[in-house]
Amino acid sequence: MRITSMVFENEEHIPSTYSCDGANLNPPLVFIDVPKTAQSLALIMYDPDALAGSWTHWTVWNIKPETKEIMENSVPQGAVEGITNFGKTGYGGPCPPEGRHRYIFRLYALDQMLNLSPSTDRMALENAMKGHVLEWNELTGIYER
User: Fold this and answer.
1) Where would you tag: which of 48, 111, 117, 139 has the fewest CB atoms within 10 A of its CB?
2) Against a cut of 0.90, is the pTM above it?
3) What are the residue ranges in the chain where pLDDT is below 70?
């Protein structure tokens, strides 16, 4: 399984359109070779270089396993977005106070759907996924102001 984007390569710069300096839209993402046994997909975007520790920018789960891509500024039909470290649901783009930060988009293939509310944060999502991850992969983008 792989995750890619049409707007940046792995370990390359994320365009400012997808940051707090631009339109703050989620970038388009493409999913390749999802396991046939997957019942759902989950996505977590986070910044491991944040001063306060790993900062969650976006969580989405119950993505249908046949989903091939997430379009720019959209969420797949039926998927659920959770609470980020910004204190709200939805995408929050790169916005580092200083320096060069990595932004990791980690895609999980799961053996079940998740019964979680939109008030779920990353820790609760990761706990719910324990024992249900079939495969995962990640795409890393870089952003510096």
Assistant:
1) 117
2) yes
3) none
